[in-house]
Every structure is written in C-alpha cells, then in structure tokens.
Design brief:
By secondary structure, the protein is α/β, with parallel strands linked by helices. The protein folds into three domains: about 1-10 and about 15-230, P-loop containing nucleotide triphosphate hydrolases (Rossmann fold); about 280-355 and about 435-490, P-loop containing nucleotide triphosphate hydrolases (Rossmann fold); about 360-430, no CATH class. The protein has 21 helices and 19 strands. It has helices at about 40-50, 70-75, 90-100, 105-120, 135-145, 165-180, 190-195, 215-220, 230-240, 255-260, 265-275, 325-330, 370-380, 385-400, 405, 415-430, 445-460, 475, 495-500, 505-510, 515-529; strands at about 1-10, 20-25, 30-35, 55-60, 75, 150-155, 185, 200-205, 205-210, 290-295, 300-310, 315-320, 340-345, 350, 355-360, 435-440, 465-470, 480-485, 490-495. The protein has a six-stranded mixed beta sheet, with helices on both faces. The chain has a six-stranded mixed beta sheet with strand order 15-16-17-12-18-19, sandwiched between helices. Strands 11-10-13-14 form a four-stranded antiparallel beta sheet. α3 crosses α4. The longest helix is centred in the first third of the chain and has 16 residues, at about 165-180. It is globular and about 65 Å long. The termini are far apart.
Length: about 525
C-alpha cells in the first residue's frame, strides 16, 4: 500500500503550508483520484507521493518501507510530457528508466520492448520524441515509467492537453495498469477521471476536505463543489445518479440518455446540460481570417489551402492532434510564415505583435520577477506611461482573478493553473482587435474557467475577434458563435455553433468524437421528436 500519513509541506518562498496534515492511501490495483482547485495542493501531493519532495512532518511509505523505496516502486508522470522526456529517440526514452536502475542490458531491452507493447506504441520505437503529437508523447512518458515496473503510479493532470482520441487511449492504458495490480494516484480536474476511479479525495487549501466513492460524490448535496462538478456533464450525471443510475455507466452518453428516457428525466438532464448564451458581439468589430494558407514542416503539409473566417465574436477551432490547429493559430497571429496564402486582420496582412497570442502552454511565456511585472511588460513595451501600465495590470489581473498577494509573487512560485491565469492576463493587458488563444482552459479549475469564459465573451462584446483552439469544444459551445474543425491541415467542417450544439454530424466530418454533451442532446432530441 502507498500510504501518505499526516503529511505537511511548505515551500521556502511561500506563505503557509501547501499541504497540512494530509492522509491518503492507495491499495494495489486501486485508482484514487484527487480533486481540488488550482493551488489546493494537488501537484505538491503528487511530488510528495513519489519522493521528489520531502514532507516537513508525517511520513510516506510504500509497502511498509520509506525513502529509497519510493523511487523504485512509485512511478511519476507529469502534466506536460515534453518536460519529462530526456532522449531524442522513443526506444531510448523508454529504456532510460530501467537503465538507471542498474539492470543488465538484456533486461533493459526486454523491459523497454514490453512497455512499448503494453502501451501499444511499438511502431514509434525508432521515431524522434520531439516530432510526436502530445498524445504520443504522453504515451511514451507513461511507457518509460511502466518499463521500471512500479507498483504504484502518480499521475498529475496527464490528460489536460490531449485530444479526445488520445485521451481515450491514455485512460484505457491507465485502467489496464490498474487492472493488472498497479495502484494509481491521479490528480485531476475532469469528470472523466472521476468516473473511472474507485475512490475520490478532495483537497481544499492543502487539507483533505472530503473523501468517498464517485457515486457518493455525485449523489451528495453537501460534498465540496470542486473544480469539475460545476460543468454541464457533471450536473447531468448528478441528476442521473441521484435518481439511481450507476455512476460508472454514466460515462457512456448513450447509457445516460437511455436512463433519462426510462426514468422520465429528459427535461432535467437537458436543463443540467445548460443552454446557449448569445455572445452579443459588437455590430461592427474586427475580423481575422486565413485565406488559402499552406504551411510545410520538413516535407509534411501542416496546413493545406486552409481558409477560415473568424469575424467579430468567438470562433472555436477544433481537430485531432496533428490536424493543423496550432499551426493555424500561429499563422493567424502572424508569427508563422506561410508558404502561400494569407493571414488577414480587417483585410490587411497580420503583423507579428498585432494579435494577442497565448500559446498552448501559455505559462511558458512567463519570465519576469513578479506576476505584476510580467503583466505590465506588454503595455510598458508599447510605450504606455506608468499610470496607464498600472491601470492595465489592475484590469487584466482582476479579469483573471489574480489577487494583490499573487501579483507580488514570482510567477514560478504559483500553481500550474495560477501561472496559466497570470500568462493570460499578460496577453489581455494590451487592447488588441483580435486574440488567438491555444487551449487556454487546460489545467484551469472551475473558477479559472468561469473567469476565462467571462473574459472571452467580454472581449467579443467589445468588438474583438477571439479564436479559441480547443479540445474542450463542449465546454465552449455555450458562448461560441462558430466552430471550425480541421482534418489533415484542411477545413473539414465549418458551421454555426448552434449546429454544433446538438448534432454530431460536423464532428464526424473531422474524425472527431462529438462532445459528451452534444451526443446526449442529440439522442434526447431524437427521442422527443
């Protein structure tokens, strides 16, 4: 058993404890999911659980042993696989862990091949790690840990940047590892992780606030409303669970819709899934577009005569990993040279710096000594006076929910979600006519997602064109105006958000699984027609 017993932990440059008297246990073959808001202590708990951070008090034991046993028996997979990969070639990456255990070469090769097969990525063995998609990199990172044959796995938000198909692959792999006897401790924000768990632990302010089964969590009226239970899917599942549905079965939208129909809960489930809100975009605003855009990388065509329109309002750009989304985002922001075609803002060629851009891992854009200085960089660099700079910082910080205490801290001392909000505040501190945000809600808790949603709709109402590249289409449909879906560098589908709200057809054209909420709406709509 992995036992975290009355553990407290504090960072040297932070006020107060990141963890305070936390006790969590994981049995072999058990999958325990830890929920909590950004800054609640989840990532710190992950580091303590695998031995990379030593607690100030309390103890961590694995199968009754301490210290060195954690390194050998507890594997750790981070949120960003790129930060974990150390080798240029996939096979070498997977073999790296066993080699560092001092095993004989033959055993290292055997374990690496076994892990590649178990993770179903044998065909990637000779590929370079840098050229893989995010989902492939995450599978390689997991394979590298699996090759060390840990008895327990600690997973820190490992699916937050993955497309729907890659997420299914990774989740199925984790399930198979747990079925094979590996204990899993997973930090998460997403309801999908909870539905696969045996037990749920909720952290709040570094303390354990609640613990129980997934069914108890959804059925409870008093359990903490955590980072994931504010979403439409969670609300719909709660309706079904309180009416007697099996919570694990609710992972399947067809099963939820069938249960709702059988129990006469159609209207309650649809109400829980929410309604669309008109963005109320300014009547005369800015327009961003790509016209016949072509981009090649090392002989691979990333964009193939792609044409998309993003007039004033909120435009979602979706697609599987490798479909060209991030390339399109960089082209729209003017930071990528096109082989042919054009990126236009209000009919003129987009210039670098002319569009507000948040990269996929926007927290990597942070660099200053304090959060306030980071947000101030854009306005200050544009020549604004200090009074204007202070006003811009206060406005942007307020819109992203950053307190005075956080503004005074180093951005590198913040939690992952807090860093992301700080980076986004830096992007909006300048008043652009258009914004391109690549996966802006990944890793954010419920409060952070609400703030971001309010920010995006506010920008659109002020006349901006806001392009959101996202895997979380269902999350953004309530406030979107249009949806563009890419496939193999081409626009496979472009439609009004109202169509993407309750029909799976546009997603099928792009080879995408439709969002859970869309599938349920479509099924209940057909049955009531």
């Amino acid at each position: 058993m992995l036992e975290i017993d009355h553990v407290s932990f504090a960072y040297a440059d932070a006020h107060g404890h990141a963890l305070h008297d936390v006790s969590v246990s994981v049995r072999p073959g058990e999958r325990v999911v830890v929920l909590g808001a950004n800054g609640s202590g989840k990532s710190t708990l992950a580091r303590v659980a695998n031995g990379s951070a030593r607690p100030l008090s309390g103890s961590v034991r694995v199968d009754g042993e301490k210290d060195g046993a954690l390194v050998r028996r507890v594997g750790y997979v981070r949120q960003d696989p790129a930060s974990q990969l150390v080798s240029a070639r996939v096979f070498d990456e997977v073999a790296f862990g066993p080699a560092n255990l001092g095993l004989a070469r033959q055993e290292v090769v055997s374990r690496a091949n076994e892990a590649l097969e178990r993770c179903r990525i044998e065909e990637l063995a000779d590929r370079g790690t840098a050229g893989l998609s995010g989902g492939q990199q995450q599978l390689v990172a997991i394979a590298g840990v699996v090759a060390m044959r840990p008895r327990y796995l600690v997973l820190d938000e490992i699916c937050s940047h993955l497309d729907p198909l890659a997420r299914i692959e990774v989740e199925d792999l984790v399930d198979s590892l747990a079925s094979g006897g590996v204990g899993v401790l997973e930090m998460a924000h997403d309801v999908r992780s909870v539905l696969r768990a045996a037990r749920v632990v909720v952290l709040d302010g570094g303390r354990v606030a609640w613990e129980g089964s997934p069914g108890e969590l959804f059925a409870s009226e008093t359990a903490p409303r955590t980072a994931l239970l504010d979403g439409p899917r969670s609300r719909a599942i709660a309706v079904a669970t309180r009416a007697g549905a099996d919570v694990a079965a609710c992972a399947d939208p067809d099963a939820l819709a069938a249960f709702a129909e059988a129990r006469g809960l159609e209207s309650e489930v649809l109400e829980a899934l929410g309604s669309r809100e008109a963005t109320a975009a300014a009547p005369a605003g800015h327009a961003l577009s790509l016209a016949g855009a072509r981009v090649d990388y090392d002989g691979v065509r990333a964009l193939d005569e792609a044409t998309l329109e993003a007039p004033c309002g909120v435009t979602l750009v979706a697609g599987l990993s490798g479909s060209g989304k991030t390339t399109a985002a960089c082209a729209l922001a003017g930071v990528l040279e096109l082989g042919s075609g054009a990126a236009l803002l209000d009919g003129d060629a987009v210039r670098p710096g002319g569009v507000g851009l948040a990269f996929q891992r926007s927290e990597d854009q942070l660099f200053a000594d304090t959060v306030a200085d980071d947000i101030a960089f854009g306005p200050r660099n544009a020549g604004a006076g200090e009074v204007e700079v202070s006003a811009a910082v206060a406005r942007a910080a307020g819109e992203m929910g950053l307190s005075e205490e956080l503004l005074a801290r180093s951005p590198f001392s913040l939690s992952g979600g807090q860093r992301r909000r700080a980076a986004l505040a830096g992007v909006i501190a300048l008043d652009y006519g258009a914004y391109v945000l690549d996966e802006p809600s990944a890793g954010l808790d419920a409060r952070g997602r609400r703030l971001l949603c309010s920010l995006v709709t506010g920008l659109a109402r002020r006349g901006a064109s806001v392009v959101l590249v996202t895997h979380a289409v269902g999350e953004w449909l309530p406030v979107a105006d249009r949806v563009v879906m890419l496939r193999d560098g081409r626009v496979a589908s472009s439609c009004d958000a109202a169509e993407a709200w309750s029909s799976t057809a546009p997603y099928a054209l792009a080879g995408l699984p439709a969002p859970y909420e869309v599938r349920v709406r479509e099924l209940l709509g057909r049955r009531s027609a």
